[in-house]
Structures are given as C-alpha cells and as structure tokens.
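so my prof wants the structure for this chain in the tokens format not the other one, which i didnt know existed until like an hour ago. anyway here's the sequence
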Amino acid sequence: MLLYASVLLIATVILSKTEQVYSPFTSTCNAAKLEPEATCPSSRSEWNRRAKQKQCTDVVLSCKKKIALKYHCLINTWKNLTLSVCAVPTYINGFRCPEFNIKGSNIQPHYDTNCSIDIPACPFRYNSQDVYKYRSCYVLNMENSAILNTKPTTKSELETNDGDNFFGVNLRILWCILVLVILPVASAVSFTLYKKHCDHSQVLDATIKNDHKTTTDILSEKSTLFSEKENTMIEI
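here's what i got, hopefully its the right format
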C-alpha cells in the first residue's frame, strides 16, 4: 500500500510539472506577445512597419526585468509555423536560421536549416532581426503539419501545433502508461515476497513444533525406562 501511494505521488508531481511547462504561452522574462503569423516580412521597411504594430517596447515583463524586447518573425521548432513575437535579439551562428522555441521561450539556431544557400547568402554570424533577408528561413515543411492550410487563431492551438508541445503530450501519456504498468508489477512482487515469507514462517513453526515433540517424546521415554529400572531394583 505504501509503495502504491509513493508511485502515485511521484507520477502526480511529474504530470503536474509537465502540465505547467506546456500550458498556453504567456509572457516570460525573455519573450511576450507570441502569435501565429501567416507570412513574415521580406524587407526592412515591412519589418519596421510590423514592429511598430507589435509595440514590443510597451511590454511589461512578468518578472519586471529591464530587457529590451524586439519584434521578430520566425519559424517554430518543427518548422511548420511562422510566429511573431517580442523577444530578446540573439546572434545566430553557423549559417543557421533562427527559430523561436516555445518551451525554452527563447530564440535559438534551427540546426536543420542552412541559409548559406540563399541569394544573398547569410553570413556565419548575424543578428536574429536580420532574418528577413534570407527567405529560405521561411520555407515551411508541409509534411510536419496537416493543418497548415488553416491559420491557428488561439494560443492553445499555437502550442498544440508546436513540436515542443507534441513531446509534452506524449511524455504525459508515457508516464501514465508507466504508472499503470509499474503498479501491478510492484503489487505482484510484493505479494510474492509476502507469500514466501509466510510459507517460510509456517515451515519454521512446523519444524520447531516437530523438534519440540521429538524432544518431549525422548524425555518421556527416558523417564519411563528410569522408572522401570527403579522398580526392578526395589523388587530385588
């Protein structure tokens, strides 16, 4: 019973933490105003126009850190959506495209991309706000999502379409399966050990009783022989 309660408590804690990580996106210390974007800017003037509409400079972060957030339009981790977000500008290295990772709430290189094939090609290192120059960074992988033809309208839908959330959902399912498997196995092992203990105790008790009975019989037999010997001596 104690083992069952312990496993159940651990599973509850893990699932609750997983649920918190993959809850609908809200402002963090590094990013805010995450929304799906049908298309991303292809020029500096268009980038500046959307940045003005986004009003990232007006964002008040939940942790009250004094960080200057800037407008970005980036692919997500699965490269099946483009997102607009107010985030901290980041230098991207290695001829990669920038992505916005929802789970980590940060901009980082997408290691399955290569913007050096663009014309103009991206440099080895550049600022994430210059990504509009490299159009290959906005080529989406249509095989990764069956709903790309419809634009997500809510933050929940946005998170559901993101690769991070996919792994989060499957992680919760995996833990549920593990709990359902572990509990019966643990119960069966506990019952087997308990039964073996009981059987051993019964054998031990039976052995002790037999030994006691044998000792009693021997003493009784010796007492009888002694009594007979005394009677014989008295008669003589």
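also thought this was worth mentioning. The longest strand covers residues 31-36.
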